[in-house]
Amino acid sequence: MKQGDEAATGVSATLWDRTRQLASREILATALRLFTEQGYDRTTVAQIAREAGVSQRTLFRYFGAKEDLLGGDQRLFGKVLVDAISGQPAGAGVWEVLRAGVAAVLALHDSREQALERFRLLHDTPSLRAGWLEKRLQFQEDLRPLVEARMGMAADGADPRARAVIATAFACLDAASMAWVGDDGKGDLLDLYDQCVAAVRDA
Fold first, then answer.
1. What is the pLDDT of residues 102-124, one digit of tens each?
2. CATH class of this structure's domain 1-66
């Protein structure tokens, strides 16, 4: 392949990636608007696809399930969480690295308003809460070896303390986001998370 062809291929790939990202964001924005206006359970995938100007087949190429239309690609969520924690300095404490993971996933939201609507829908929709709890258990297992290493434990799951710490961090995020939604998004969500963690550690 000639150098010019390589450059052209690189440009084409970049344009393709950008097109996919724009389409993905448009679908997510449309889904969030419809979920907010008429409720998650009353909104169909067909309606989202129609209003976003794509086919249902195209929509499912971007998102594997309806619930992914609320929070985006859950695989990306998990990857960002793991990468953020793995990338912390060796001497950082377990609560510090978990906070870095929480901050990284909160930063995935395009805006404060988007985050507020997503958390509101999550807490107000039983089917979404159930799905989130299931995914959270998987995220906790993905993080367990990393936290066990930080705590000086064997990465075999035999010691329950790492699971307890991770579950507590997620519970603090739940408590913080519920308070944040209840106060209509006032204040900083990460500050509320810090307050929840401090309360648990001081109890």
1. 999 999 888 899 899 989 998 99
2. mainly alpha
State the maximum Cα–Cα separation within the chain, in Å, rounded to a whole number.
Answer: 66
Tens-place pLDDT, residues 59-106: 888 888 888 888 666 677 888 999 999 999 988 999 999 999 999 999
The fold of 73-203 is Tetracycline Repressor; domain 2 (1.10.357)
Per the CB < 8 A criterion, the answer to whether 102 and 169 are in contact is yes
Positions of CATH 1.10.357.10 in the chain: 73-203
Q: pTM of this prediction?
A: 0.80
CA dist., res. 141 & res. 44, Å (int): 32
Phi and psi at residue 43, in whole multiples of 5°?
Answer: -100, 130
Residues of the chain with CATH 1.10.10.60: 1-66
CA angle 132, 112, 26 (to 5 degrees): 75
